[in-house]
Design goal:
The protein is an alpha/beta fold. It has 15 helices and ten strands. It catalyses: UDP-alpha-D-glucose + 2 NAD(+) + H2O = UDP-alpha-D-glucuronate + 2 NADH + 3 H(+).
């Protein structure tokens, strides 16, 4: 895993820098997500390079912050997790960090563990959240095939107190696969192939959701987007951030470009340079110049939608809910399609305007032939 190797490289570099500079006892705190047993690696490096009279304690204090709400998540944390050695010195170090958090976090919300439990808990928490999203996304495919509404199904099962309602919103927004892949790697290293395969399936289901959504776009546009213009509204991986890491928009855009589409892209926060960089990166693109010619980045949604055959909504920006879709419809090629990958639009109102609307986990319109013929019996 290249990502894990890069993490270990930076962790090792930081540890060597601390050992070089430190002149007195230090408490070293892991804050971000790190590979499990990274604390052990840090301590080995520090111990091998420590100066006389200098000792170290390593604490694991993973953050549980989300982009766009990070400050609120820090101030109003559900819990603070601190892991350290089960020795008197280790417990004293834990208490030192606890005393800092207690300035704004009640002590009962501070949970202390051993170092390894703390490191694994961050990976496990993200993996469990991804599992819930993976589960509801798998059910969204069943809903579309049966006529059920995934939002209604999610509400119904969320009312069960054993399950709860959080992270049951089907969409193309996916929880980061990075931590799950770390967990897969750990399981493989521990010779737990069945456990590794289980978590790998969560990753595979999340990837399937993106592929399935994009396939629906192509199928709806008469099974080809070659020579057609598609507008992508939203490029960030979620609203209120300009971050594009693991954004589903990259997968959607790449697939459409590979199929010969011309793309018009608008996002209120993501810089034009970032969009071009993401779509011409060697990992997703073999012909950067060809891709650049097929992409135009716009500064407003209305210009981006003019003369397009379809709109694909990839980020749940609030402004997309209030656009004048009557105006947009009249400026688009007909038939005009909207693919709502975040389930945020008023689908009935769009259908009334004349749009052909597709979303995730709900069948909004029967196929044209079925509607015109009054049923499938006319399909001889």
């Amino acid at each position: 895993m290249k990502g894990r190797a890069a993490d270990l490289k930076y962790v090792e570099g930081a540890a060597r820098m601390i050992a070089e500079i430190a002149q007195s006892d230090k408490i070293v705190v892991e804050k971000s997500t790190v590979p499990v047993r990274a604390a052990e690696s840090i301590l080995k490096i520090l111990s091998a390079n420590q100066k006389p009279g200098v000792s170290y304690q390593i604490l694991s204090n993973p953050e549980f912050l989300a982009e766009g709400t990070a400050i609120n998540d820090l101030i109003n944390a559900d819990r603070v997790l601190i892991g350290g050695e089960e020795s008197p010195a280790g417990q004293a170090a834990i208490e030192e960090l606890c005393s800092i958090y207690e300035h704004w976090i009640p002590r009962e919300k501070i949970f202390t563990t051993n170092t390894w439990s703390s490191e694994l808990s961050k990976l496990a928490a993200n993996a469990m959240l991804a599992q819930r999203i993976s589960s509801i996304n798998s059910l969204s495919a069943v809903c579309e095939a049966t006529g059920a509404d995934v939002s209604e199904v999610a509400t119904a099962i969320g009312l069960d107190s054993r399950i709860g309602s959080k992270f049951l919103q089907a969409s193309i927004e996916l929880f980061s696969n990075y931590d799950i892949l770390n967990l897969v790697y750990i399981c493989e290293c521990l010779n737990l192939p069945e456990v590794a395969a289980y978590w790998q399936q969560v990753v595979d289901m999340n990837e399937y959701q993106k592929s399935r959504f994009t396939a629906k776009v192509i199928q709806s546009l008469f099974n080809t987007v070659s020579g057609k213009t598609v507008t992508i509204l939203g490029f960030a991986f979620k609203k209120n951030t300009g971050d594009t890491r693991e954004t589903p928009a990259i997968h959607v855009a790449k697939t459409l470009l590979d199929e010969g589409a011309t793309l018009k892209i608008y996002d209120p926060k993501v810089e034009e340079e970032q969009i071009y960089c993401d779509l011409t990166h060697p990992s997703v693109c073999e012909s950067p110049e060809k891709v650049k010619k097929a992409i135009t980045v716009y500064q407003d949604a209305y210009s981006a939608c003019e003369n397009s055959h379809a709109i694909v909504l990839c980020t749940e920006w609030d402004e997309f809910k209030t656009l004048d879709y009557h105006k947009i419809y009249h400026e688009m090629m007909k038939p005009a399609y909207i693919f709502d990958g975040r389930k945020i639009l008023d689908h009935k109102a769009l259908i009334d305007l004349g749009f052909h609307v597709q979303t995730i986990g709900k069948c909004l319109q029967r196929p044209l032939l079925t509607r015109f013929c009054g049923g499938t019996s006319c399909m001889h």
